[in-house]
Amino acid sequence: MSAESTPEPGIPGGTGPTGPRNRGQGRRRKARARRRGLMIAAWTAAGVVVLGGTGLGYVYFKLNGNLKSVDIDQALGTDRPIKADNGSENILVLGSDTRSGSNKKLGGGADDGSARSDTAMIVHVYKGHKRASVVSVPRDTLINRPACTDPKGVTHDAARDVMFNSAYSTGGAACAVKTVESLTGVRMDHYLEVDFSGFQKLVDQLGGVRITTTKNIDDPDSHLRLKAGTHTLDGRQALGLVRTRHGVGDGSDLGRIQLQQAFVKALIDQVEHVGLLGNPKKLLDLADTATKTVTTDSHLGSVNSLMSFADGLKGIGASGMTMVTMPVQYDPANPNRVLIEQSKARLVWNALKTDTAIPKAATTGTATGEAAGVVAAS
Q1: How many CB atoms lie within 10 A of CB 376?
Q2: The pLDDT of residue 377
Q3: Where is the composition biased (Basic residues) (predicted)?
């Protein structure tokens, strides 16, 4: 059987490609053209949208100058999980809650330059790059953080029973990657970070994102009020949706993650259908914002590298993504914190290591946040 016809793994029984593979060549060419007409990667909830691109060489230096990167390999050295040789890739995607500049009003709090990882997703791209699994890591998970060194060269001792998002606020991107690798035993091949203000602007430049809510959402903390029904969210509303935790479900971070996962699929669907090939200015504006919005690992720290990376992911649409939350249970001592369900989590990490489907048993009976089905793509 050829690689093209080999079924790609995902979650058994989960969402997958629909319709026959032998659809008209014209439809496939149009779909590929739409994806190639887009430029960069910006995956969010913070999460994760992939925008692949070509044809913008004349603005290479402008866009290249926008990019920020972190040398994860140098910071972490060689004491890391072994890189997989099965053709798969793992990307840690963080949505950063930076308390400075234009993010101050969006993130809340003082303009003190501090930052947190408000959203974290491990994106596993399967061999063949036709499907991906996304594992969201609740920021309120109590973990044992390894010792790590921050961007200023200061070493921080290991810490027990601290929140997951403290890794980023303590030691930045490298500490976040080291913590994830310590928890999972899975090598992170790449790192992508998206900030609040850039995310909001990207959504606006895409013309908003269309979603349907099955329940009213009213959360003064995130400034979001939506009646049940179909909406096209602008950037500020979209940011409110992926940050709300008191407007839906049980008010936990787990409920917010379910909204984020639904929104990511809606956003990817929007990217696939927006028409940018006939609008060079809109395409350039989007590329300019995207390259200002993301921070990457050093291997993706140029427009050429990012374009090549995005081109390899352009075949993964919303229907080709399965999304789960790292298996957790509520902490009996504090309902605002969660603990890793270790035996079930090992099933997830082993699936990523072996490039196989995440078994349903891994997420059955775990804490959910009770917000499933509140938001869907329209």
Answers
A1: 14
A2: 63
A3: 24-33
